[in-house]
Write a structure and sequence with these properties.
Blueprint (H helix, E strand, L loop, with lengths): L1 E8 L2 E4 L3 E2 L1 E4 L5 E6 L3 E4 L4 E10 L9 E9 L9 E9 L12 E4 L1 E8 L1
Antiparallel strand pairs: 1-2, 1-3, 1-10, 4-5, 5-6, 6-7, 7-8, 8-9, 9-11
C-alpha cells in the first residue's frame, strides 16, 4: 500500500507524500520481509536498508508510482547486508488520488513493484 495523508497546501489542501506499507515476497510468493516509511526495507532475519532517492522516472503504466533508483544504507547481517542500491521498477498502481481531500484525511492505495537490491 501507499498511504497518503491530506495536508494544507497553498491555501487549500492536497495529498502529501506517500508512506509505503508492503510485504516483500520472493517470486514463489514466500514473504521474506517488509517495506515501510523511510523508505526502509527489513528482512525477516533483521537486516535492513534505509534508502535515499537518487533518480526517478515516470512509470510506463498509467496511475503507477514512479520507478526509483535509491542509494542504500544497510545494517545488520543477513539477506540485505551490504546493500548499496535499491531499484524499484515494474510498478502498478499506488498513485495519489486524483480528487480533493480534507486535511487530516488518509487513504491507502494498493500497488505492486519489483525491488532489486544491489551490493
Amino acid at each position: 500500500m501507499q498511504i497518503y495523508a491530506c495536508v494544507t497546501a497553498d491555501g487549500g489542501s492536497a495529498w502529501g507524500a506517500a508512506k509505503p506499507e508492503a510485504e516483500l515476497s520472493q517470486a514463489d510468493g514466500r514473504v521474506v520481509g517488509h517495506h515501510f516509511e523511510g523508505p526502509t526495507w527489513e528482512a525477516q532475519d533483521g537486516s535492513r536498508v534505509a534508502g535515499s532517492v537518487i533518480d526517478q522516472a515516470p512509470a510506463p503504466k498509467p496511475h503507477a508510482v514512479a520507478w526509483l533508483l535509491l542509494s542504500g544504507r544497510a545494517s545488520g547481517s543477513g539477506m540485505l547486508a551490504g546493500t548499496r542500491y535499491v531499484l524499484r521498477r515494474d510498478t502498478d498502481g499506488g498513485e495519489k488520488p486524483a480528487g480533493g481531500c480534507t486535511p487530516g484525511q488518509t487513504t491507502r492505495v494498493p500497488y505492486t513493484a519489483t525491488y532489486t537490491f544491489y551490493r
